[in-house]
Amino acid sequence: MAEALVNVLLERLATVALDKVRGEFKLVSGVEEEVNSLSRNLEAIQAVLEDAEQRQVTEATVRRWLSELTEVSYEIDDVLDEWVTQVRKRQMEKEEKHALAIAKKVRSSASSFVSGSKVRRFIHRREMAGRIKELNERLALIDKEKQSFNFQNTTRDPELLVRQKTTSLPNVKTFGRDNEKNLIVSKLLSESSEGNESPLIIPIVGMGGMGKTTLAQLVYNDENVKSYFDKRIWVCVSDPFEEIKIAQAIIECLDRDNTSKNSNQLQILVECIYELLEGKKFILVLDDVWSPKLTQWEELIKSLCNGAIGSRVLVTTRKKEVATLMKATTQLILLEELAQTFCLSLFYYNADMNESSVSKELQDIGLEIVKRCNGLPLAAKTLGSLMRNKKKIHEWQAILRSKTWELKEIQQDVFRPLLLSYHDLTPATKRCLLYCVIFPKNYVYNKNNLIELWMSQDYLDAKGSKEKITIGQNHFDDLVMRSFFQDVVVDAKNENITCKIHDIVHDFLQYLTNKNECLIQDFELGASERTEVPNDKVHHLTLLHATESDSLVSFLLSYKKLRTLTAIDSSNNSTNPIFELTVQLKCLRTVILHPRNNGLVEIPEMIGELIHLRYLDLSGNEKLKELPSAMGSLYNLQTLRLVGCDSLRKVDVRRLINLRHLYVDGCGSLSIIQGIEKLTDLQRLDRFRVGDCDEENKFEDLKDLNQLQGGLTIETKGNPNMAEKAIMVNKAHLLQLKLDFQLSYYAERQREIMNGLELHPRLESLSISYYEGGAFSRWLLSLHSLRVLTLKECNNCRSLPPLGKMASLESLHIERLDGVEKVGAKFLGIDGQTSSSIFISFPKLKKLTIEDMLLWKVWEGVEGWRREEENSENNNITIMPCLSQLTISLCWNIKALPDFLWKTPLQKLHIKASPILQELYRRRKKRAEISHIPNIKLG
């Protein structure tokens, strides 16, 4: 944590040096030199932090030193942030006052006020100067103390120095993995190579401790593999990827007496391997590959291209990007968790016990212990070894309930592979990962929300033009690649990405933070069962199931240095007291308050004193009717989440000039977001309601919000005017849009709105609901990047637009277009100009759903169109060549489906609540037409 925090501080100090805030430093004697000294001390400490971060795992004194550094760094960050905030707020207020004076054409002078203001600023500067001086003295002592540790200025992973090298020898006993082994063996022995390339590369990818090396050993020593290959080579690569050492090891395996292996010139080594492999069918295992550069890999692979057809390279790695770099993703073997039955067998084997003779009592306890392994073979092995000398029931029960043994043992045996992956992360990515333990186990993380949380803690330092959101996405993707995140789910429209953290990974992260930095307190547990840590060490606190009590008040107020407070599933009577206490915790950057039911009734004005606050989530507080005016003092607020605050009527964001993310979905009573037109840097807005009254938002409020990203729902209420045209066409970063014309009754006005909402061609997903304007606007066909389209309850639409011309469309959902009776060639995009050239209708469409079309009777293909054309024999039209899933539901009057559908690569056909169609395709002759489709449901 300290390494990333120091990096953040140095970035902040460098920014301050170029800021107007620097001018304030010069107004107080000695402050500028103190700030410069801060930078120098931090830079000196920064040089050894990588070594210190790695040594803290086993050295308590280093851990203490880093803890002191972290505390001082946090306080420095608070002081700098407070100073910068006050200066910029004064600048903003001065500009507002000047603008108001111009508007009123009066002088904005009040000598007594100015005089008092100058006095307050002078006092504040002196206070800041004193705090900076005191912090700098503490930092200087920490810098001096580091000399006693003999830290190294190194970027090399020290754990790798003690990690035992793997060998090709198999383990004495293995369990499970037969299916994976057989799959890999079949790939190794297959006569065909991908694109006739030799050698074929097969990566085994999985998180640390999953058994990649064990599996590779099983394959390597398989009798069929031994007899199939002329040469077998095993090289443990580890980190860093040094092609010279790898080449030397390969030569050693091929020809132990070859003197070329002693050369340090890559060219000589490559030529030697090239000659030794000529005409030979070989298998090369590269075990534990981390981060080769493309140039390094290309040089090494040159030496392997002289082997016979059928040669193979088997790679084990924790990183999917390694398979990508090696251009071997199609052959990738993703190693999943070991089945519980095999984990049990591995556990008992290492416990030196016969599984079949274990007593029922021990079996029950043993099963609970093995469940904690969650499919990790290394965990099962470690836990089994721990039980080797424990044979009595009370001993097993004590182990099952103990918390201390895990830290001592897992540090060496289970956490080691995770630690390898962890140390390979950048400091910023490490800190992002560690922050995830503010949430309990099995929590479902949302990618966008997680990135915003990281932003609130200043973990994402943007350099140059690179956006913080992009940096956060890179961190997230990297953690997915390293298997720290699992169960990644992407919704059908690519709008939301969620994931989980494995329980063992969660324990590992808690171990790294020593349960001090991030603390979770569950109030459903008794006081004796809760974790007790020093209050002054906790910076991120999560409360679960909190209830109102005197102990809650004293408990919460004792954590004065909190930067994150999360309250999940709190009782109704505790929500308001928690928030009243929250506003007294002045260092807070992040506040999340999710009640069990209704939650907050009001927010105290004191919230304006939380000047450091960046992230405020009040979602689910259904009784909250208004936000206090003091919210305007939250100058640094970046994210405001109000999802499901159904009683909220108005939100005022006029002074929240740093707001980047605003979420108001589910705020059914919200009619106006005051000042939203000023937030030209707003990046996320989930819902925007447009009305026709003075106290409601207007379409033109969106005109200059051209930095919007992700998804947006625009909901019209009443009959709003379209005063501005081309409101949406400049929003190049907006990927998903939902247009909901709810409660709008005038078709002509809706048509005007639709025509004025010309969209940017980069849009990827569009949903149009309750549109009564008849035909859709022409700009619909200009959306060349659109992948997902939904048309729902557009009742005045008499015919479908020529959607077949949309080159990128992959998913199409049509529902309740009650005016449509016939679908034909126009829908496919076929017209008179099509006959003279090759045309592909719906070239990328994979999924087509048509639901609840009450009047729809006819669906024609190209037959009707061709009868009217002179070139009736023309066969230059291809229709839906990628269609894999078709659903027809609640279409009571449709009589048949067009023949072109049976020429598509359909994999799923589902016809439900459409009786005529269902009866038709149950008949033997018609059933034969669709018999080639693997998955058919008629009902």
From TrEMBL:
Report domain Disease resistance N-terminal positions: 6-96
Under Gene Ontology molecular function, one entry of this record is: ATP binding
Ranges for domain R13L1/DRL21-like LRR repeat region: 700-816
Under the heading InterPro entries, the entry gives: Apaf_helical (IPR042197), LRR_dom_sf (IPR032675), LRR_R13L1-DRL21 (IPR056789), NB-ARC (IPR002182), P-loop_NTPase (IPR027417), RX-like_CC (IPR038005), Rx_N (IPR041118), WH-like_DNA-bd_sf (IPR036388)
Q: List, alphabetically, the CDD domains matched.
A: RX-CC_like
UniProt keyword list: ATP-binding, Coiled coil, Hydrolase, Leucine-rich repeat, Nucleotide-binding, Plant defense, Repeat
Which ranges carry the Disease resistance protein winged helix domain? Answer: 438-508
Question: Ranges for the NB-ARC domain?
Answer: 184-354
Coiled-coil parts of chain: 28-55
What's the protein here called? Answer: Putative P-loop containing nucleoside triphosphate hydrolase, leucine-rich repeat domain, L
A Pfam family the protein falls into: WHD_DRP
**Source species taxonomy:** Eukaryota, Viridiplantae, Streptophyta, Embryophyta, Tracheophyta
Q: Name one GO biological process term.
A: response to other organism
Q: Does the keyword Disulfide bond apply?
A: no
